[in-house]
Amino acid sequence: MNADQLVSSQQRKRILITGAAGFLGSHLCDRFIKEDFHVVAMDNLITGDLQNISHLFHLENFEFYHNDVSKFVHVPGKIDYILHFASPASPIDYLKIPIQTLKVGSLGTHNLLGLAKAKGARMLIASTSEVYGDPSVNPQPEEYWGNVNPVGPRGVYDEAKRFQEAMTMAYHTFHGLETRIVRIFNTYGPRMRLNDGRVLPAFIGQALRGEDLTVFGDGTQTRSFCYVDDLIEGIYRLLFSDYAQPVNIGNPEEITMMDFAEEIIRLTGTTQKIICKELPTDDPKQRRPDITKARALLGWEPKVNRAEGLKITYEYFRSLPAALLEQTEH
Ligand code: NAD
Ligand code: UDP
């Protein structure tokens, strides 16, 4: 390293990203490396994969800690920003590991808020549209308090995230900590796990394997899918805004799961059919973000429509080794 490089490395802002080896965390690492930050990545690899960030390991402004943030968090040196993205996010993941899910949203968040306070860092947490549960208003504005069953199977995720928001707001109010809360709606794109059980990889995986597409229930339930690059841009803008209340980031284009299955059939050209399976307990009937706040406060709105985003994501899944394709969620 020459003298100029040393000065620039000392001046770099340092950002801690938890859940860095996961789908969204790895895209955040890419973005902040691109913005010339020093990225401290942390993950315990419970649902993540080092492959998602292996292209960054040779960089001098990237480091990785294999650590469970629910146990403790220690990072030497200064930290200017923290993005807490560690948490299982797919229903089949958090149903398999319910206690870890509750712990990372609660104890993990507490540990990271403590670190943020000690370091004087600004912390942004990854919350979710799941805080609205099975919503009785559509689209969902941030003011809606939600309709969550705390003791249902999804409660471990939803309540952990609601606690996470409450704890973060308490640190903001009582300790004056700089905090940001993003409520993320269903996001998709390259680096999702083909076998993570979420509807998009499930349908594309089934099409690629020549299996029928499994629509749960009668397929009238809706979701609104946001392409990952749009989400990352929204998070970036929120982090550098001065707004501490929750902000929805998602794509308001809503679709039923039956129509979505048909869209994937057209995209992939599969000759398989759609079969209906039992609807999981407490599966939300509708979900669509009201993004009035994101538009007004951040000047943000999604740019990638579903046709474009699905094409990119399909190409990504098609390029994966055949062995990965064979690992189903069952
Ligand atoms: P993911 O499973 O791909 O990534 C989560 C990462 O967190 C994984 O790499 C996992 O190993 C890591 N992790 C989990 N527990 C940990 C712990 N105790 N210590 C350290 N690392 C741990 O999921 P994702 O889709 O990238 O989601 C990332 C975050 O965004 C989550 O907090 C999730 O709740 C939130 N979110 C995602 C979506 C979405 O559509 N993808 C929607 C709403 C909210
Ligand atoms: N879903 C489906 N078939 C599948 C997987 C999921 O019909 O193989 C449905 C699921 O019941 C839900 C929607 O797709 O209504 C989105 O599910 P996902 O697990 O992707 O996310 P979430 O329910 O958390 O929004």
**How far is it from the N-terminal to the C-terminal residue, by CA?**
49 Å
Note the beta-strand portion: 15-25%
Task: State the CATH topology.
Answer: Rossmann fold
CATH architecture: 3-Layer(aba) Sandwich
CATH superfamily: NAD(P)-binding Rossmann-like Domain
- Unreliable stretches (pLDDT < 50, length at least 5) are none
Strand order of the largest sheet: 3-2-1-4-5-6-11
Shape: globular
Domain NAD-dependent epimerase/dehydratase: 15-250
Protein name: SDR family oxidoreductase
Keywords: Decarboxylase, Glycoprotein, Golgi apparatus, Lyase, Membrane, NAD, Signal-anchor, Transmembrane, Transmembrane helix
InterPro entries: Epimerase_deHydtase, NAD(P)-bd_dom_sf, UXS-like
Walk me through the topology.
Layout: H1 3-11, E1 14-18, H2 23-34, E2 38-43, E3 62-66, E4 81-84, H3 91-96, H4 98-119, E5 122-128, H5 155-175, E6 179-184, E7 187-188, H6 199-209, E8 213-216, E9 222-224, E10 226-227, H7 228-239, E11 246-249, E12 254-256, H8 257-268, E13 274-277, H9 292-298, H10 306-318, H11 322-326
Parallel strand pairs: 1-2, 1-4, 2-3, 4-5, 5-6, 6-11, 7-10, 8-13
Antiparallel strand pairs: 9-12
Helix pairs in contact: 4-5, 6-8
